[in-house]
Amino acid sequence: MPEETQRSQESQDVRKKGKGKMLLVLPVLLIALGGGYLLYAKKLASKPQAVEAKKEEKKGIGPILSLEPFLFNLRGGNSKFARVSIGLEVRDEKVLEEAKKMVPALRDRILSFLSSKTGESFLDAGQREEMKVELQAHLKGLFKEESDLKNVYITDIVIQ
């Protein structure tokens, strides 16, 4: 009988050790599975964005009409002036040829728009971005279709 008692105690000890190991391994295994699932889900979610990014890369930047620098007085009466260089991105080569014919009208609108701004609006990056959007909206009326003018780039700014 003492042998049977000893064997039953040994088997209980083995079961306890097995449960202890299982309690340690199970959470680690669950964490590993959860992390793997998150990585997999993140990879699946990023695929549509990657496809969209490839489509935009194919489009690329369209032809750009670089205009001569604009020299103008800034608003504010403190006799400051600025020199700004601007490039207009258009949809395709056909629109670029049409835009070249409209350079005097484009320059007139751009100069009127820029001379209404203060020096601070050129120095602050946020205001400069807003200014580009406003200028683009201001110029779209000169083009046959609104989609002909894709973007406005300010390539150089000097304020004195």
Describe this structure in words.
By secondary structure, the protein is α+β, with helices and mostly antiparallel strands. The protein has 2 domains: 60 residues; 96 residues, Band 7 domain (Tetrahydropterin Synthase, Chain A), CATH 3.30.479.30. Helices cover 62% and strands 18% of the residues. The protein has 5 helices and 4 strands, in the order H-E-E-E-H-H-H-H-E. Strands 1, 2, 3 and 4 form a 4-stranded antiparallel sheet that branches. The longest helix has 58 residues. It is elongated and about 85 Å long.
Question: Can you summarize this structure?
Answer:
This protein is of the alpha+beta class. The protein has helices at residues 2-59, 93-101, 103-114, 119-123, 125-139, and strands at residues 64-66, 70-73, 81-90, 149-159. The model has no long low-confidence stretch (mean pLDDT 81).
